[in-house]
Amino acid sequence: MELTKEQLLDDFSVLALSNKEVVKNDNIINSNNKAINEHIHKSLKKQLNVFLLASVFLLIFILPYVIGTPVSFVLIVVFFFAIRYCKKSLDNPNSFFGKSSFYSNQRSKILNKNAMQEKLKLIDTATQRNNQINQSLNEAGIFMRIPEQYTTYKASVKIFTYLFNSRADTLKEAINLFMQEEHQERMEAKQDYIINKTEQAAMDARAARIEASIAAAASQSAASYSQQASENSKRAVSTVQNRVR
Q1: Hey, which of 18, 45, 141, 166 has its CA 20 to 30 A from 210?
Q2: CB atoms within 10 A of CB 17
């Protein structure tokens, strides 16, 4: 069935603003993951350096009197390259060191610190919000009406503006126009697209109306379910009372 222009405007306004929030949440997830990994690497490198210095001190000033200087020198070289390997393996979770219980235990201890827990909560909140957004879009049927390759932020914004400015009246026309401009942008090496204030205001208004409509429908559904449950409960009580009589 051919989608009306109004339906398309509604769908792409919701898609654009939803994608904008998803991108924002993705940035939160990526930045906090990066900060956590950098902190873990920094802490582990510091521990490995301390371990190396302690080992060198032991091998230079104490063990030579027990095992001899040549053996101590060999052990120093071995420890040096072992620590160096561990440092390089920090970025590779599939390495021997990355799979070791030492790495796992130290990582867990670092993640249990308050500062890391706060970052993990931010990541979890952003991830849950993205899942909720995708679920809402799916339940609204948008992913069934709009081809997947045109549900990205850039595509949804540009297609909305085509429809809003009457450069296209159907989904097919809008997609063709989008593909033409994408090809032109690739030729000119342009990647950014700026939406003007009028288009942004129209998009915000439509998305807000759709969200309000969805919320109202959900509230009405919940009220209806509650009323039905109450009536079922009353009937159940009445049935029990009749049986008792």
Answers
A1: 166
A2: 23
Query: Average pLDDT for residues 203-215, to the nearest whole number?
Result: 70
Q: Are 193 and 158 in contact (CB under 8 A)?
A: yes
What pTM was estimated for this model as a whole? 0.65
Whether the Cβ atoms of residue 79 and residue 52 lie closer than 8 Å to each other: yes
Q: Is 28 a domain residue? A: yes
DSSP assigned state of 3: P
Instruction: Please indicate, yes or no, whether residues 119 and 195 belong to a single structural domain of this protein.
Output: no
Q: Identify the domain containing residue 219 by its residue range.
A: 8-14+149-244
Distance CA 80, CA 71 (A): 14
The reply to whether 142 falls in a domain is no
Residues 113 and 201 occupy one common structural domain? no
Whether 102 and 154 map to the same domain: the answer is no
Domain count across the chain: 2
CA distances from 59 to 63, 66, 67, 68, 70 (A): 5, 10, 9, 10, 10
Instruction: Tell me if 137 sits within 8 A of 10, measured CB to CB.
Output: no
pLDDT of residue 32: 94
Cα separation, 240 vs 168, in Å, equals: 64
CA distance 127 to 28: 9
pLDDT for res 27: 95
pLDDT, averaged across the chain: 78
189 and 96 fall within a common domain: no
Same domain, 114 and 190: no
Break the chain down into helix, strand, coil percent, rounded to 5: 85, 0, 15
The pLDDT tens digits of the residues spanning 141-191 come to 999 999 999 999 899 999 999 999 999 999 999 999 999 988 887 776 655
Residue 228: pLDDT above 60? Answer: no
